[in-house]
Amino acid sequence: MNKHLRLMALLLLLAMLSGCVPQQRDGEAVGGIAMPEPSDEPENMILGEQQPSRLSNVSLYYAMSDGAVFSRVPVSIQADAGKSLPEAAVEALLNPSGSEEMYFSTGDTHMLSCEYACGIATVNLSIDALNVQSEQEELALLTAIGNTLLGIDGVRGVNVLIGGQSESFARLPHGVQTEVIPSVTASYAQLLAERDHLMTDHAMPVTRTATLYFPTAVGSWLVPELREVVFNSDDFAGALIEALKAGPLEQTCSVASIPAGAELLDPAPRVETLSSGEHALTLNFSSTLANYLAFSGLEIWELAGSLALTVCSFLPEIDAVRIQVAGDPITVCQIGDGVMRFEDGLIHRSDFASYIGSVATLYLADSFGTLQPVQRAVSTRSALSPRNLLSELFYYTDKDDSQLSFPVPENVFAEDVLGIQIVGNIARVNLSANFYRCCQALDASAERSLVYCMVNTLCAMDNIRAVRFYVEGVSAETMAGSIYLRSPLMPNPGIVVEPVAGEP
Amino acid sequence: MSLIQLVGEYLFTQRTKDDQRIAEALSEQFGDDMVYFDAPKIYAAALETARAEQSRVLVLDPLCVVQVDTDSRMNGTRFITAEVDRVIREGRSDYGFYDVGDAGTYWLRAALSAFSPVDAMTGVYAHGIYSGGQLTGVLVYISRVQEIYESLRDIQLRILFWLVIVAAAVMVVNMFVLRTITRPISELNEGITRMSRGDLSARVNVRGKNEFAGLASAFNSMSERLEQLDKSRNQFVSNASHELKTPLSTMKILIETLLYQDPIDPGMTKEFLTDVNKEIDRLNRIVSDLLTLVNIDSGAMKLNLTDLDISGLLQEQVKRLSPLARENGIELECAAGGAILVPGDALKLQQVIYNVIDNAIKYTPRGGEVHCSAARSGRMAVIRIADTGEGIPEEDLPHIFDRFYRVDKARSRETGGTGLGLSIVKQIVMSHGGTITPESTLGKGTTFTIQLPLAGKKSEE
User: Fold this and answer.
1) What is the CATH number of the domain that holds B24?
2) What's the rounded mean pLDDT across residues A437-445?
3) Which of A316, A334, B106, B266 is the most buried (most CB within 10 A)?
4) Does A452 touch chain B (CB under 8 A)?
5) Which of A33, A426, A428, A459 is most worth mutating to test chain B (most B CB atoms within 10 A of its CB)?
6) CB atoms A486 and B63 under 8 Å
7) Distance from C-alpha of A23 to C-alpha of A358, rounded to nearest angstrom
8) Domain with B285 in it: what CATH number?
């Protein structure tokens, strides 16, 4: 008996020491837990594109006490349909009631236009802006606009023109403002110092941010790109042309407008004051440019537009450019089916303002189930339209043989996106029953690719952070069994693979 | 709670605390980001942490939809575990351990056991993401704890291994102790018990050469000696009874014959009474001899030691027995020289020499010879008494000093011996520190050699 008891005690000790005693917590299958469910929603049949005017919080910057500091006034701005938020913000800033906050009077200064593309806002003010008392006050006005717009999501640079011309301060090009400047006084003092260094002993180069405009490989657009340009002398035009020769660095959808081998025959381009009072810059290129135009497929209007927009947006007080190739001036060019003629060879910025396009990022699926961003040049208006962006996905053709596609099932078309509504920062996408039905055969990987192609593309827009899908106005459980649709879906950055260098 | 569980709880608790700290920091960071659906920002922060900690972070919305996954595999799907459910329904953070299957399914572990290995032990910590007091999401922090599990399993297997080794060692030691200590004691105890019940044949197995083997051997010797003594005692009682009964029977017959004699024959009566008297003498001698032996055995016999001349003593006894030798037709010679002093009791040693010479005369046939001599040999006095009698068979030689032992039973009684003479002789010689050794050749005779220690130098001079 004693031996049995000892044996049992030994076995119990073995079991206790070895940890073979079941823990208190028994096995529990995950599948047995009920998921939380959303509350019922009323039917919401969204058709077309509904972007109701929305209130956005923007800080307006006003120059105070000789421009030493800026005061920030947070306001809610209502951007109506068809108007960009930067445009509405500048209007609010120049509003006569609000502009009284400035330590100087802006008079009747008002905004003539506001181009917003690729995160660059180009604001064209009325000539009244020049009615300020001093160059420093003018700088304060432009800086207030720049500071205000740079506070808006997506705005990376602000270029302010007055009367269609770029301005100079301390006889140096102002260029594009890319950072919030806290004090105009300090900024102006730095300008004076830079001028002295550059004009007297060329000891210190000056760096400015310019907006370069490049033609696109697909479509008839000229898309802007910010570029830091270094000036070692007062030959600003020459440095700008060299920057254009380098071609686009940010955008993959645009191409260079001037070949590297093209040289200016006149090393110091002439600025001519015309009888009309306008200032024109003459650029006389070598014949290499003619060869490039003949073999690259680049059209003359693209060269003319790229130069006119770039030069007039940066060089101070230039109204137009004259372009010559081996002394032969460009006076006419063909755009599509139309013809554009330039009187006396004078090409104005305004001639190509309507050809300024923007870049939209489309997310397309590869064969590995990951997504790759593809840039597409679109009109500035389309860049602000989610429905147009989805249409770009549907109509995407793999011209570059990159094996990318929008994995939508057959018999599903752009029209199957019945409507899109922006509420807050959520895009509500209403799909057709046909779309939903055709997706039922998708496997989990294809379903994920399809959904996140749309979600990531829409969320690349500044004002969209998540996407909610409906089918014929009704909330659906899943797209094809995996992706839950009753909750807004945020973009999936981890599924995106950046294309390797050299690929589109 | 087992030792392994204690160690496991400690290790897992440490990991839980680390995970909890990281998850809570991320949750606090993501509060407003979830409100503004800032997925890139959440993803970047989560990815940085996941890479640094070699873990995985899921950010769920309140409907359990994965909005951010640092592995980017579960976005858009719904994910729920008991821990996530607890956060959503009770607002309480929780931690659980899962074995992640090949398909990415999570199963809660039941036990930590060496017998059901886990492929990918994973810790899941769920913590609420709040903004303005409202639950805006759930952060699920998934860390791989397989290495902790493997360590514990390794410890568990090691403990099991060593337990088996220790158990085997204990068993071996137990067997050894049983064999070397317990079992001999038990056997000894059993032997003593048997002996106490009167079974003197009880013996104990002797194994090895240790103390227990010595004890068992001593016990066996003791019991053997006791058994021998018991046998001797029985034999002695039997012999004594027989020896006492024989004269009594003889006397009874003689007296009954006299009683029933009618008429009484005076000559026969005298003869019979003479015989009765002889038997009484014999009885008297037997009893005297027995008393002498009892006296010696009990240690009551006192030796009156003096330095005596053993050579003279021998000559004296030869002289005393010469008439008997002549009567029996035996030539009795003594070759004793000068005085040889030995410390001894004169009466007792006289009895010794008398008995041995008397025996030699009695057992030597007519015409035989009995030679006595005394000499020195080293530090001993050597007395030899040799006869030319029939000799003693070799098998009887070791027993001739036993009490009542007779080589020729019938003849001994005829010679008037009690059977105790040589026993008394040996006891007296031994009490004097000497020895008596018989040598015999059948048909040629017997020689008894008595060696006694010589007296000191002073007494010798």
Assistant:
1) 3.30.450.20
2) 91
3) B106
4) yes
5) A33
6) yes
7) 63
8) 1.10.287.130
Residue B249, number of CB atoms within 10 A of its CB: 11
The verdict on B350 and B366 lying in the same domain is yes
Given the DSSP bridges, would you call strands A347-348 and A48-50 parallel, antiparallel or unpaired? unpaired
Burial of A168 by CB count in 10 Å (0-12 exposed, 13-18 middle, 19+ buried)? middle
B221 and B90, same structural domain? no
DSSP secondary structure letters along A273-292? E-TTS-EEEEEEE-THHHHH
Indicate if B312 and B449 belong to the same structural domain.
Answer: yes
Tell me the residue ranges of DSSP E strands in A239-308.
270-273, 279-285
Report the run of H or E that residue A173 belongs to, with start and end: strand A172-173
B76–A23 CB contact, under 8 Å: no
CA angle B145–B147–B150, rounded 5-degree value: 115
A2 — contact with chain B (CB < 8 Å)?
A: no
Residue B166 within any structural domain of the chain: no
pLDDT single digits (tens) A112-126: 999 999 999 999 999
Residues B2, A492: C-beta atoms closer than 8 Å? no
Q: Does residue B338 share a domain with residue B419?
A: yes
Residue B81 has its nearest CB partner, among A10, A30, A34, at A30
The answer to whether residues B144 and B250 belong to one domain is: no
**Could you say which of B122, B137, B157 is where a domain stops?**
B157
**Which domain covers residue B346, as residue numbers?**
305-460
CB within 8 Å: B110 and A27: yes
| Burial status of residue A40 (CB atoms within 10 A of its CB: 0-12, 13-18, 19 or more) | exposed
Does any CB of chain B come closer than 8 Å to the CB of residue A160?
no
Residue in chain A lying closest to B161 (CA): A18
Nearest Cα of chain A lies from the Cα of B113 at a distance, in angstroms, of 6
* Assigned domain for B129 exists: yes
CA A358-A361-A363 angle, to 5 degrees, is 160
Domain total in chain B:
3
pLDDT bin (cut points 50, 70, 90) of residue A27 is very low
pLDDT score, position A243: 92
Last residue of a domain, one of B249, B276, B297: B297
Q: What share of chain A is helix, strand, coil (3-state, %, to 5)?
A: 30, 30, 40
In this structure, are B11 and B148 located in the same domain?
Answer: yes
The more confidently predicted of residues A281 and B202 is: A281
Nearest chain B alpha carbon to A455 = B76
To the nearest whole Å, the CA of B88 is away from the closest chain A CA by 8
| A405 min Cα distance to partner chain B (Å) | 20
Question: B349 and B283 in one domain?
Answer: no
Q: Do B329 and B455 share a domain, yes or no? A: yes
